[in-house]
Amino acid sequence: MNATQQGPVKADGAAPRQLASQAVLAVIDRGRALDVALLPLLASLPGSRDRALARRLSHGVLRDWPALDWLIGRLVEKPLRGRNRRLHFLLAVALHELRDGREPDHAVVHAAVAAARALSGPRLTGLVNGVLRTFLRRRDALLAQLPDSAVFACGYPGWLIQRIEADHGASANDILAAGNQPPPLWLRVNRRKTDRDDYLARLAEADIAAQTVPGFPDALRLAERAGIGRLPGFEAGLCSVQDGAAQLAADYLDLGAGQRVLDACAAPGGKAAHILERHGVDLTALDVDGERLARVGDGLARLGLEARLMTGDAAQPQDWWDGQRFDRILVDAPCSASGVIRRHPDIRWLRRSEDIARLVQTQREILDALWPLLEPGGILVYATCSLLRVENDEQARTFLERHADARAIDNSDMPGRSMGPGRQILPGEHGCDGFYYFAARRMPE
Asked: Is residue 154 annotated as part of the catalytic site, yes or no?
């Protein structure tokens, strides 16, 4: 059931809370990505403040899901099932707000009751009102009873906590904490149309505070998040939104004019655009998903850039390759996305432990399939937004073992920390998402 089927919600603040609960239900019960679930729901909210609130609440609930689900189990006598299951998630939104403390308790309860009335009529508004008021009376005692485990304290599934602890040791607590912090907004300045200093001045004129960050030559990091509509010249292609760590791919590729370049897993297109902003290269942007690839083309058009767009599986080049080798290949590999959980909190509940072995195998197949397509002397860059070593330095090491003509490139001057033959940026370092990069040069035959 979507928001338009519910009819308009008249009570102030009820609509964004109702829609946030529907989005979280889609993630937890139906396995849908949060951004996909939110898109049609947010379109039904006319106000930008309500849209921002619905997004913030859905993110907050997913970051704190184990504790919220546990509290509801203690406050509701019988599990909410069937159509009433929607109220389980509405209660989660309200409990998150009551724990967060940004709004007065009475306003949160009022909005939740109004949203419950819109979802299922007046018959269960008393239940919602009673549960929330019981929580307020017993708040300290209930919170003191929360299980003493990292799952409840950090809001991650146990399997992922164990992997992060095993892979990163003393840094694990900082990684988990960083994953629960809202990320800053990073911009990438389009060198084809302006330069970083000029655009920084434009932001200042628009009363948007930003700063440069050493090691990120095209990046500006905003002091506070700002809507796209406020960014000077955005529609004219002067800048794009892209995390600082993701911008490093262009530096690892060591690009030069006239090179033939393959972006092998191109969607959503930020790295492909950055490559073209840097140099006049012959770029092939490949992706297995034709619909997402079309959006890559839309993004390039806004920036005044062009590339050869091809739909195909990077692991099956016989289906799309023209036989001419590439000077540079970027493999922005499908991965667990465990490094961008602060930006996409649904990942922690959508990804499963058993997914990792399949992803590692896919990464290996792509690397092995594309390596012969690289010119001798050329560079392949392997990138993931993962924190898991099996996807990162272990994948890089085994690649080097399989390919005698591959030599790891020393990129010790790049941001991050040494991790095997590549470099790892952890979430929050430099204000970035978590990323891993490994670059290899193909030795002459």
From this structure: no
